[in-house]
Amino acid sequence: MSQENSQYPYEPEFSFKKLVDDRLDDVKYILQFKKALLLTLIIGGLLGALTAWLWTPTYTARLTFVVDDSKSGSMGGLSDLAGMVGFNVDGLGGASGVLAGDNVEELIKSHKLIKATLLTAYDSTQTLADRYAAVNKLDKKWLKYSPDGKITRFPLNGIHNTRLQDSLLHEMTELILAGDFGITKTDKKLGFFEVDATMKDEILAQLFCKRMIDQSRDFFISTKTKRLRDNVNRLQKRTDSIGAILTSKTYVAAAANQGTLDLNPAYTAPTANVEIRERDKIVLSTVFSETVKNLEASKTMLAQETPTVQIVDEPELPLKKNRLKFSIAILSGMLLSGILFSFYILLTRKKTKT
Predict the structure, then answer these.
(1) Burial class (CB in 10 A: 0-12, 13-18, 19+), 18
(2) Any long-range contacts for 22-26 (C-beta under 8 Å, 24+ apart)?
């Protein structure tokens, strides 16, 4: 029995008091090197201050907007009541399609809209994509991919972009979504959204934030009203076509009536011709009237269905400047250097003991 027990080493019981005493002994041992510890803390603080001084500041552009959809009012009361008990019924009625629920947040963060925004003008010589690549030093990093050894530029709209330009745009989009751009809904029960763009160039952050909303607003409205706009355009073309034919028929009927003034009443054929033309004119007039009525009804429906994206607060210069504070950098440097010094001292003590 003693041989069996000897195969397993003895494991002492855990003691919280012993654990605390061991840590206190470690602290006492570290404090024996006060001068070295003080020097380490000073060096860490200086390195933290240097980091704060070399830290490139960023600028945050913040924009708030509200989406007003005429269809969202039908379930507004039910949605508010359900929201009080933790339920979301946005998908059960009211606002639907592209502006339903959280779709706004996902659409604004889509690669398509971000790329379209990057390909707008920063100034007369470069696009937002060119400027973003320059301030983040991506243009020099990408020189190894350039076939001619020159910095890759991004023309407006990017209609004839090369494979390399598309790939680099995709990389910039991923970087922007990783932390440079974000959208939040300030209140789940309200339609207010807040967009933030944080970049190393103040003008770039402002332009990107505002143009993202412009791109999104155009996309929202065109997607939401596409079917109705197509119907209005079709009815408009039909109305114009029927109106032109009706005008022509009116002149023809008037000419036929004028031709019967000097005819002998005994001849009925010209009179019948006039009646036929008058009948065609009346039929066309009726069709034209109904088409115009349908056109106006479609225009009214289009106006009612068109959502409104209203800007509440726009980013104005100067933007919020984000810098690494010297106090935080110095304290962080001292803390990190102190921890590393303590680990080193304790590890060397264990090695000497062994």
Answers:
(1) exposed
(2) 26/342, 26/346
Give me the number of domains the chain comprises. 2
Measured distance CA(300)–CA(289) in Å, rounded: 17
Please indicate, yes or no, whether residues 104 and 248 belong to a single structural domain of this protein.
Answer: no
Indicate the pTM of the whole model: 0.66
CA–CA separation, 169 and 154 (whole Å) = 9
Degrees to nearest 5, angle at CA 130 with 128 and 131: 65
Rounded CA-CA distance 84/14 in Å is 49
CATH classification of the domain holding 148: 3.30.1890
Residue 318 per-residue DSSP state: S
144 and 271, same domain (yes or no): no
pLDDT digits (tens, 9 = 90+) for 224-266: 788 888 888 898 998 898 888 888 878 777 776 665 555 545 5
Q: Is residue 212 domain-shared with residue 66, that is, in the same domain? A: yes
Contact assessment for residue 60 and residue 322, using Cβ atoms and an 8 Å cutoff:
yes
Contact criterion met (CB below 8 Å) for 109 and 197: no
For residue 259, the enclosing domain spans 228-305
* Coil, strand or helix at 67: strand
Asked whether residue 42 is assigned to any structural domain, the reply reads no
Give yes or no: residues 256 and 280 share one domain: yes
Q: What is the pLDDT of residues 62-105, one digit of tens each?
A: 998 887 765 544 444 444 444 444 444 444 444 445 555 567 78
| Structure-token match 């399609």, residue found | 97
The number of beta carbons lying within 10 Å of the beta carbon of residue 68 is: 12
